[in-house]
Specification:
The complex is a heterodimer of chains A (214) and B (109). Chain A has 6 helices and 6 strands. Chain A is of the alpha+beta class and 214 residues long. The two termini of chain A are 31 Å apart. Chain B contains 2 helices and 6 strands. Chain B has a 6-stranded antiparallel sheet with strand order 1-2-4-5-6-3, with helices on one face. Classes of the chains: A alpha+beta (214), B mainly beta (109). Chains A and B meet through helix 5 and strand 3 of A and helix 1, helix 2 and strand 3 of B.
């Protein structure tokens, strides 16, 4: 987690704006133009700061204007991305998810971004990664799995069908709890691309409890 | 299929059997999955054989994963065909079953 003051201090230092009193800058201050006065060259420097200091790469540059709008939007973005990375042990290039859009008790949805046309098996892996964001609090409590720890699991079974051609680019993945027998969870998924269902199926995951119990 | 092009080397390839040797733990896939604990992602066991067979994966009728695969391991794919399905048993060097795959493939465009 980065606080607003920490972010302000980082940027003041990065752009040599020491004459500005950090506490006097509101979180809603715009970073570019009339606000802090950054320009397009500074945007590149800001991207480098995100990568070096926070390990975050903005995959889709068209999102940058929204992310870099104000101190508040930038802080929220950094904290969301870090939360995301902490929950999911998979790193690039195996991690396909670019955004988690819903994280509920019994379902989760995410956007996965593929630079190349993904195989059906890779799509299933992305669905398994999406399922990590289902909260499943009731089951975890019952099984003695701490709610605040990174969830560990092993993909034991999968079945899936391609229902339409899949291209490179973004897909929207929805995962839903179906049933469980103790640590063994059955989860269904559906994958959409441009409003067409391109794949669907089920995965079976064995969750790991505390001390590796499963 | 950019990810795994260099993650394996084919050691032996006949009609019904393919043996591959995996890259070492410095390969980007092993570094990513997972840091401190390099294992081959299950889906890649499928992608590797589909790529060797020069096909495209249409359906995973069922895939069961029983054993973890580490860098540098040699794995053997035993391939058979039943109706429209390609059935693959994946074994390790000690002849222990790693996974069992029932796939529907189509020829690459």
């Amino acid at each position: 987690m980065i606080t607003l003051d920490e972010l302000k201090r980082d940027l003041v230092q990065l752009f040599g704006l020491e004459e500005i009193e950090v506490s006097s800058i509101p979180g809603s201050e715009q970073l570019f133009g009339d606000g802090l006065g950054l320009d397009s060259v500074d945007a590149i420097e800001l991207s480098i700061y995100l990568e070096n200091r926070h390990g975050i790469v903005i995959e889709n540059l068209s999102d940058a204007a929204d992310i870099f709008a104000t101190f508040d939007t930038l802080r929220d973005y950094i904290n969301t991305q870090n939360y995301f990375a902490n929950k999911l042990p998979h790193q690039q290039p195996v991690r396909s998810l670019s955004k988690v859009v819903a994280s509920n008790q019994l379902d989760a949805a995410a956007v996965a971004t593929f630079k190349h046309k993904p195989s059906l098996a890779k799509i299933v892996e992305a669905a398994a990664q999406t399922s990590v964001f289902m909260k499943l609090h009731e089951f975890k409590s019952e099984l003695g799995i701490p709610l605040d720890k990174q969830i560990k699991g092993m993909l034991l079974k999968m079945r899936a069908s391609k229902t339409n051609p899949i291209d490179a680019g973004d897909v929207y993945i929805n995962t839903e709890y179906v049933a469980n027998y103790r640590y063994f969870f059955d989860i269904s998924f559906e994958v959409r691309q441009l409003d067409l269902v391109v794949a669907k199926g089920n995965i079976n995951i064995l969750l790991e409890g505390e001390d590796g119990a499963s | 299929m950019e990810l795994h092009d260099d993650i394996y080397t084919v050691v032996e390839h006949s009609d019904n059997k393919v043996i591959v040797e995996l890259a070492d733990e410095l390969h980007p896939v092993f570094k990513a999955h997972f840091p401190q604990n390099p294992i081959l992602p299950g889906y890649m066991q499928i992608d590797i054989i589909v790529s060797i067979l020069d096909a495209e994966l249409e359906q995973i009728v069922g895939a069961k994963f029983m054993k973890i695969v580490h860098p540098k391991e040699q794995i053997t794919y035993h391939i058979s065909y039943k109706n429209t399905q390609t059935r693959v048993e994946v074994m390790d060097q000690d002849d222990q079953k790693i996974s069992s795959l029932k796939l529907v493939l189509k020829a690459q465009n």
